[in-house]
Amino acid sequence: MADSEALPSLAGDPVAAEALLQAVFGVVVDEAIQKGTSASQKVCEWKEPEELKQLLDLELRSQGESQEQILERCRAVIRYSVKTGHPRFFNQLFSGLDPHALAGRIITESLNTSQYTYEIAPVFVLMEEEVLRKLRALVGWSSGDGIFCPGGSISNMYAVNLARYQRYPDCKQRGLRTLPPLALFTSKECHYSIQKGAAFLGLGTDSVRVVKADERGKMVPEDLERQIGMAEAEGAVPFLVSATSGTTVLGAFDPLEAIADVCQRHGLWLHVDAAWGGSVLLSQTHRHLLDGIQRADSVAWNPHKLLAAGLQCSALLLQDTSNLLKRCHGSQASYLFQQDKFYDVALDTGDKVVQCGRRVDCLKLWLMWKAQGDQGLERRIDQAFALARYLVEEIKKREGLELVMEPEFLNVCFWFVPPSLRGKQERPDYHERLSKVAPVLKERMVKEGSMMIGYQPHGTRGNFFRVVVANPALTCADMDFLLNELERLGQDL
What's the pTM value of the predicted model, to 2 decimals? Predict the structure, then answer.
């Protein structure tokens, strides 16, 4: 960038501040929104780290820069960032760009408040409770509690902490020395945050008993029963089962009714990690996948995934009505949660969480829901299922594509078998060579910027692609492009 006179501080100059923001918003609309969601543009513009550092000129200096330079910085940030709203971005469990949710995010950032007391966030305290009430109703609860958390991992950790506190409330004050050896149970397909949460909360990863999953990735209730018996025989105290509705790789839904039966027999807290699959509750056609979720004690649900509400939007829902969240996490800071305020202090929700400052995560979901209604969001879910089915049927028609399994959700997992390996399944090195294909194709697609698809090994299976069909803007043409592009990128392998 050419040197130019540094821009004076915009503080106290509303005209200059408005001009800057208008210009930045113009860049955002043109570069991040219009180009960033256009199939004619790249998903990403790959640069090696050292080159990217130079292009971004990351160093922070003593002298400020001009508005022209600042706008160029904004363009560069957008240019070299991955466009997760792009119709060819299939890499994560989140994608797409909902304009109403984005409007909510812009307003949230502009107001810059913390959602801990009614006095500084009156609109959002009431809004959060209404959104949580709606989510609980979809789970099947007429009452309960909840909070928005900074990600599904924290929601899962909160659930473990709440279950422990409910059984051993003294541990809040006296710590781990008051506890017997504890055991919690989850399947081998669970999200890694369960292991991390056990470590973070001082339970230790050895406290996590891994229950078998069947060939489709679903927890086996009979093995859960067996694992509980083994833990008790070893002197541990079972206290929680974490089931999953929509596993990360295969998109499996654990059998919640059978798992709830086991929890009921043994008096265990049932948590359902529905971070990915929870939004299926909006679909009358597909919500049967979560049958039994109403029997859970807690549910994690991330609307920033399938509903495209934007990062981050992660709810922890509780059936509890005894104020367990506040009793477990509260510390009654007198400078913030004064009990002699002029309004109902029950509206001060900040003591329900471990954080102090907490960003507003409800507005983007509320505004999108207002615009779409239940029916619009249901159509979005059903359309995603229909597109996933279309992709599966197209995979079956094409040579060189092999499904890992028939999906029941929106995770479509398959191998691309390159020309050199077709018909060679009997070779002793076939699976080893096939496992090397996905990383090569991933590098090629990213460096060309044509699309992004995740891959991973799984158990004894070598690397395969996992296409996540979640972006509400996707069409059959995008599914066709995906398969055609894989064939083009892999034709010489």
Answer: 0.96
